[in-house]
Design brief:
about 250 residues, alpha+beta, six-stranded antiparallel sheet, three-stranded antiparallel sheet, about 25% strand
Length: about 250
């Protein structure tokens, strides 16, 4: 459906749905390798290409920055294959998302697969993406007929992508230095927070000082549980903890 309705009309020849489609089209040798940062060895380590069909609603597409640019051009200029009414609905805000807005930014509003905000009075529409070993950023300024796509082959690439992206926007809008948000400083603060190991007390601050005893032994809670959304989940008791292995349906 995506190939027939969107990719082919936009001449997106290097976009595939899932890893199997890349193999089928003989393009596996062109696929970038993904990496993660190994803290112990202080170097990047290669990670396996993620296979996540359950991510279909949100992505699972293998593509190139060039193909994304073709898609972005269609969004900016509101061309086919999407109708004029369709374009209007895609960017119509539905909800307020995210934390408190950054300085000079508005709240982020969520549309249909797009995030909409204003920065120094300019409307900016975009969405980030990330999975094991990869990160990307895509946004555009409709009034200025300007957009950008950045791909990186590590999930933490978004740190560099964010800094590069907003520096380019600041230059485009001729924003004075004192009115530019310091993304590098923000990323350092975020990284420090993420480095903190979360204790049980931090995760669950309302736990009583004296834990309430279980009604039954922990192992009694093991077994199969069925839910209309998650289907059957098998709960096992291992090393004094309850575990569920859901790798058959989620990465």
């Amino acid at each position: 459906f995506l190939r027939e309705k969107i990719w082919e009309p936009l001449n997106m020849k290097d976009t595939y749905f899932g890893l199997e489609a890349v193999k089928e089209h003989g393009a596996i040798d062109q696929l970038a390798k993904g990496y993660r940062w190994d803290k112990e060895k202080s170097c990047f380590a290669e990670v396996a290409w993620p296979v996540q069909p359950e991510g279909a609603g949100a992505g699972e597409m293998k593509s190139t920055a060039g193909d994304y640019a073709k898609f972005l051009r269609s969004m900016i200029r509101r061309t086919g294959p999407i109708s004029k009414e369709g374009h209007e609905e895609l960017v119509k805000p539905r909800a307020i998302v995210g934390d408190e807005p950054k300085p000079f930014h508005s709240h982020v509003l969520y549309a249909l697969g797009w995030e909409v905000e204003t920065y120094h009075g300019e409307t900016i529409i975009g969405h980030d993406g990330g999975t094991n070993g990869f990160g990307c950023k895509m946004l555009y300024l409709p009034r200025l007929d300007w957009g950008m796509v950045i791909f990186g082959n590590t999930m933490s690439a978004y740190l560099a992508e964010e800094t590069i992206c907003w520096a380019m926007i600041d230059d485009l809008l001729k924003v004075p230095e004192e009115k530019r948000f310091d993304w590098d400083k923000q990323h350092e603060e975020d990284e420090e927070k993420s480095e903190e190991s979360k204790t049980k007390e931090e995760l669950y601050p309302k736990l009583p000082n004296t834990p309430i005893p279980l009604t039954l032994p922990l192992a009694s809670y093991a077994g199969s549980y069925k839910n209309i959304g998650f289907e059957t989940l098998v709960v096992e008791c291992k090393d004094g903890k309850l575990e569920v292995d859901a790798t058959d349906r989620s990465w």
